[in-house]
Each structure stands twice: as structure tokens, then as C-alpha cells.
Amino acid sequence: MPIVEAKALTKVFRRPDKGPGLGGSVKHLFARRFTDKVAVDHVDLSIEAGEAVAYVGPNGAGKSTTVKLLSGILVPTSGEVRIDGLHPQRDRMTVAHRIGVLFGQRTQLWWDLPVAESLAVLRDLYGIDRATYRKRLARFDEVLALGEILPVMGRKLSLGQRMRADLAAALLHAPRVVYLDEPTIGLDLAVKDRVREFFRSVRDEGTTVMLTSHDLADIEGFCRRLVIIDEGRIIFDGDLEAVKDRFARERILHIETARPAPLETLRASLPGAEVTVEDTPVRYAVRFDRFAMTAGQVVTALAGLAELVDIRVDEPSIEDVIRRVYSGELVLG
Amino acid sequence: MRGYRALIRATARAALAYRFNLLLGLGGVLMQLVALLAVWRVILADSPVNGFTWPQMRAYLLVAFAAGTVVSIMGDFRMAFRILDGDVALDLVKPIDYQRARFAEALGGLWIEVVLIAVVVGIAMALTGGVDVPAAPGLALFAVSMLVLVPLKFLIVYVSTLACFWTQNFMGVQWARLAVVNLFSGALIPLAYLPGWLAGAAQWSPFAGLTSTPALIFLGRVDGRHALVLVAVQAGWVLALWFGARLVWQRALRRLTVNGG
């Protein structure tokens, strides 16, 4: 049985339809008009226990709304959600013990209390015994270096410290399912690395993770499954590596030669690749399909024609693929 | 229960973070109380009005101040801002009842309000002379009425703050509540000063329990059966509002749109 299941999940928000300026606002007082905005449109999703799912989409696509529906925060307009077979509104208390939620833009720490006290409140709310609590804190400390921030007041935390503390807060009760909504937003690279390492340790313990992020580096090497949402609809749901193999198969080899080389000769030696001159006449870019030829073959062919001073290979990331999907250039599935 | 106790403790500690605000607020509140005392002293200097003598009015104002300070510092603005910025989303994924959790927070802030009341009432009494304390049965009933006031005040604040789910604005809700509460509770002027029909309506409203009931009992203006009825009305409203608030909350959840992603 899937641990998270959504069937024809739909959320419609009603927005007041006001004209511009004060006149529009006054008119709205007397003749109320609303437009319906469909934020999530018949989403079907089924996540098995232990899966790590990346949930991506452009701004306003309905990602956060889906997460709020799947965690029982919002009541769906139609369709249904089951968490471990339970109804998130009817069984709110039981479901709360099984899910953990992190919204990167929000904090659940107390502003006026040290982090340690905020975590202690959560310990009591979730009824975690003291020995288990200490064990979990020690484990979080290994990856998140919590120790140094435990005595700091919530309001004095830097963004990176806050996110580390919030991650601990979201996972303290060892939930079976974790929703991470933009968990690395605004973090510097060192903290991002640490946070990503923490995600991996959580996943490796068998926790089901649904990760929403604009930073696709969060997803690569972490999630096996990719779900893309656009305008409230799921437009792709499948294996992340398969998408990369299919759409991110192109490689670009950048070379620098000692002296300008004849472009025609280079092109003739590499049929099937595309050779272009870059900013200076000694730099070239060779675009090729990694399933048609290897980087080694390209280098060998070029080395016979010119003296290579420098080489570098660019690999398109899943980011490029998804950017092309957003812009409508690429249709997956 | 352990979770709610933790919330009470945490709010009690967090309340300390506001101690400087409180000290500043204390000055303002004290000025207002002194001004009210001064005005009534002049009005009642020669003869009682509507049966209130100057010493009685002094006691009334002090009780009104105490009743007004209880459940007024912590809680409502925090809850309102969590609803308005959508942080309420995080409250909804906790394994606790939302209403009880907010009540626990109100209880956590109580101690600092009691300290504030003790300081202000002490200063006011030192400046204007003491008050007559009622006889034992009256005093006991006054204490009960003050205790019932805590959940009553919480519920009125709680239900009105839930209005933020609809209004998207807190200041307006707070001002409207203060205007209604000040008039109908007898906090501004004793209900006996209102026109008869309004005083009658106010007396049976949930608001009378916020000031008028404990103050009248303390003054000994009501006693015996009448006083018991007033406290029963107070307690009746607590029950009605506790369950009524749950219905409002159910509807509010359906209204919830979480702002800002």
C-alpha cells in the first residue's frame, strides 16, 4: 500500500476580482466578483514507503499547495488524500505523528526562546521520551552541527542556522513521511552541502521524502523519482535517471589549441559532432551525443590535428532539461 | 497533557522576553488608570451618582483594571499574525488541538499579567487610599468569578481573532472587539450608567462577565442569589463559547488560504 496517495486532488482558490485603484476596491464592496483560480488540478500521486520524490515546477505551479494538501493543512476542494491509509483532516492527530513538514520560508522555532527549548517543546508535544530525544539530537548534531546553535535565541539565528534547527524540528519525531518545501532557499553553499547530506541520511534510514525545490542540485543524486507540475497539473512522473539519459545526453567539450586550427578540418574529423569557434580563434566547442561517441574518441580525433592546451567537458544538468520543459521546448513522457 | 504543559511553560518563559515592553506599557496603563480615578473623583466628590460613591468607584476601577489586564498580553497578536502570514500551517501539523494549545499559551502568559496587576493596584492603592474588601462569601465568589474570567476572556479573544481568517487584517478586528468589550463589559463605565434597555442586554451578554460581574461582586452591589446567577451566566458563556469556537474553527479551516507559499 502506498504511504501517500492522492486521487484527483483539486484545490480551487477564490480570488476577489477588484478593479484597479480605490474606485475598484469601493465597487468591490457592493458588487462582489470573484475569479476561481485552480491551483491544483486533478493530481494523482502515489508514493511508496521509502521513496525519495522530487516535486518540481515553475513558480506558481501549485507545488506548495500540493504539499499543504498532502499534509492536511488545506482541505481539498475535491479529490482525496490518504496518508498511511488515514484521512489527514479526520485523523489529524494520528497523521501529525507520521508526517514532518519543513517550509523553507517559515520557521516553527520560538522567536523568544533558545533553540534547545523550542525543540524541548516539540519533544513534549510529540510525546518523545527523553532517552530517544537525546539519541536523535546527538544524531542530528553529527550532520547539522546543532550543538553550537542550541543555546541561541530563535530571533538571533542566521538563515543557515535557522534552517538547520528547523530541519531538526521537522524530523524530531521520526516521521515516516517528510515534506521538504524549498529547504535550501537562501542558504550558502557550505550549509547547502550539509543540509543535503542530512537529507541523504534521512532517506537512507527509510523515511519517505518528498522534496520541492527550485535548486535542482538538491534533487540530483538524492531523488530517484521526478514529478513535474505545471499550472496545477502533473506533466511528468517518472525516473529521474531515465530523463537524464534521454534528454541530457549531450556533452560539450571545450578545447583550447596552441595555434588557430582550420575549422573545416576539425569538422571533417568529427562527423556527427558540431564544432564551433568560441570567443577567441584558439578556442572551440564540440557538441556531441555521449551515446554516439565518447569524450575520449573526440579528444583522440582532435589531438591528431592540433596541439591541445586545455580541455573541459560540460555536462548538461537536469536543470537544463527542466528549463526546456518549463519553456515548452521539450515534452516529456 | 504533557504537550499543553510544555506550551504553558514555554509561553511563560517567552513572556519574559517582553519585560521591557511591559515596563513601558506599565507607564501608559498607570497614567490611564490615574486619569480615570481623577475624573471619577471629581464627578463623585459631592454626591454619589447612580448609587456609586467615590470609594466604591475607586474599587470598581481597580477591579476593572485587573480584569482588563488578564489574558491581554500574550496570545492574540501572536495567533493573529500566525494566521495572517500563514504560519498557522505549521500549527496544523502538530498532534495537538489548536484551541486547547492557544488556551495553554494564554495560561502561560498569565503570571506576568498577575505581577503587573499586583504592582499597579498596589501603587494605586498607596496613592488613593485602600479599598473595602467584601466579607468572606463575597470574596470567595469574587475569586471564582475572576477565575472564570480567564477562560471567558480567552474565548472572546480567540473567537474574534479567528475572524482574521476572513478579514486578512488584525487591527480592525482588535479595535472592533475592544469597542464592543469596553462598552458592554462595563470597563468604560459601570453598566448601571447605560440606558436601562442597553444595560439589561449587556448584563446577559458574555461581555458582562469580563468586568461588571467580578466588580459588582467585589463591591457587594450584588450578593446572594443574584451574585450566583451572574457567575453562572459567566460560566454558561464559557461553555457555549468553547463549543461555539470549535464550529467557527471548522469553518475557518475551510477558508484557509496560506499566504506567501
Automatic annotation (TrEMBL), chain A:
Bilayer disposition of the protein? Peripheral membrane protein
* Pfam families recorded: ABC_tran (PF00005)
Q: Which SMART domains has this protein been placed in?
A: AAA
Q: Main subcellular localization, coarse class?
A: membrane
The yes or no answer to whether the keyword Iron-sulfur is present is: no
How is this protein annotated for GO cellular component?
Answer: plasma membrane
Q: Which GO terms describe its biological process?
A: response to antibiotic
Task: Please identify the protein, giving its name as recorded.
Answer: ABC-2 type transport system ATP-binding protein
Organism field? Pseudosporangium ferrugineum
UniProtKB/TrEMBL annotation, chain B:
Q: Supply the name of the protein.
A: ABC-2 type transport system permease protein
Out of the domains of life, which is the source? Bacteria
Q: Which InterPro entries match?
A: ABC-2_transporter-like (IPR010390)
Under Pfam families, the record lists: ABC2_membrane_6
Question: Keywords in UniProt for this one?
Answer: Membrane, Transmembrane, Transmembrane helix
- Enumerate the transmembrane spans: 20-40, 60-81, 102-127, 139-166, 178-198, 227-249
